[in-house]
Write a structure and sequence with these properties.
single chain; 421 residues; 6-stranded parallel sheet; 16 strands; globular
Amino acid sequence: MTQKTRVLLSGPVTNISGYSEHARLITDALMEMSDTVDLYIQNTQWANSTRSTLYQEKYNDIIQKTQNLFQTRADEKGSVDISGLFDCTYQIKPPNEFLKLSPHDIGVTAALETISAPASWVSKCNMVDHLLVVSQHSKENLQNTKDNNGIGISTPITVLPFSNNNDIEIVDIYDDMNLTTKFNFLTVMQMSPRKNFGNLIKWFTEEYHDNEEVGLVIKTHMQNNSTLDFHATKLQIKALLNVLAPEKKCKIYLVHGNMTEKQMYSLYNPEYIDCYLTTTHGEGFGIPLFNAACAGIPVIATNWSGHLDYLRIPVKNKAGKPKIKSHFLKTKFDIAPVQEHHLMPELITPECEWAYPREDSFKKNMNYAIKNHKLIKAEADTLAAYLKENYNTTVVRQKYQDFMRSQIQKEENNEREVVYL
């Protein structure tokens, strides 16, 4: 019997975040390969985001198995030496946290939502044996990065996307929300600088200040889904609206707190939501935009970064030749340095640049969506049909498993080469 490949996955498997979604996608793919893979999970924490008890229960046996193994390698001070334990690792985290842990380490990252990444990332990315990213933008972000000596990232990079679960049953979460507006926009985000939340609220309320038939549903939080965060989020939005539009007639509906996977998918319900919008500075992938597109909801988005991978799809022109066509309302933008108060050590540094969506273009797109909803809904339905066929869980998971098998084969080949030498 062939010995199983011992794999360690290190990432925020039980949190509610984009990196956590990626960690679970890879974990589930590896779990299906139990005939050849002996999987271990080092469950990390993603910033201050909430942990899900549901995911904790789902992966608890493997997490506990890993903790038990680590305890056998702990010294008197509690430090754990895992050298020699694993054949391969998947490290789902920003590259500045990558480590050399096994003969074949795979760094999994969304990179940065900027033109390039910090110079310090180069040595970290070159430390691992392969890089796995979620979009062409993420790949280009790393390829554009140079260290202080002009050296770039030489590690091979593979692009594999997220998936959409077509089997999740949608429930009516809007029935109790009392949406009184005829046309409703939706946005889902953390209130972070990159999401450009302030301008989204400002531009929306300026444009529809006197229009009581237009609403905006916001699913958001500041740090996590706690009760304290709800009150802080509510106060901040109220303070912003008191300054921008104290007597507005348009409606703002706030959604906050823990939601099940089914409830989250149910936010993207075209029976209630007419258009999804974002004023993002950039996305590694953009899971909320992806979910909206998969649900057949028209999207308004900055015409730049990771979401272009799935908001633009192949079609045939009048001559029958293939071309790539955008199936969303494109907000024009300018590329400029990240503002100083948005910088983050080892992540977003002074040399980083990202997109600044243009106010006039964004407002024009909102009005176009309202006046031409039937037309853009047909485009959205075409896009949704393509995504459901090409980005469903079965198709995408198979791509990940094909990649994983290729990495196992590489690791085995390296072993054979050592033996021959």
